[in-house]
């Protein structure tokens, strides 16, 4: 029996677009480890409080969270395991890092991008975070104003060329959209690009 190259499924999209819900569903369905940047960032609250509210501290801890995520993913790949990486993938440098890891570990890389078409649903999700997060996700946008500031801060850097990396774009905000249907479309796309290891 030949072993397939491990698969990296990289989620991409803004906060509140359904990335994490879809990533979690895919991880369970495909029996792949889920590496969520927010899990790491959530754990840095005591450090951020000790460093103060300076934006430089926030940026440093966010960068540290990405670095920890890449290291965990590298460990999985080193052992021949695929992984689902849940992050906004907001910068080209993040994609470059994934491509380097894929090359180093002979892994296949697929991007699953969540792009919302229904702004009302997107807003509702964000506002739901403010009331239902139970203390986690303190660093995530929870209002539409937060998202507008975030997008302005990105300055368009989230729109970059991905080259030859296979990508599927899904919309979890469409009327009647069900996670099962979206995940099924993603799994069909993955199957058409070599399936899971």
TrEMBL record:
Transmembrane segments: none annotated. It comes from the Eukaryota. Pfam families: AAA_33 (PF13671). PANTHER family: OS07G0160300 PROTEIN. This is P-loop containing nucleoside triphosphate hydrolase protein. It comes from Trapa natans (Water chestnut). The lineage of its organism: Eukaryota, Viridiplantae, Streptophyta, Embryophyta, Tracheophyta.
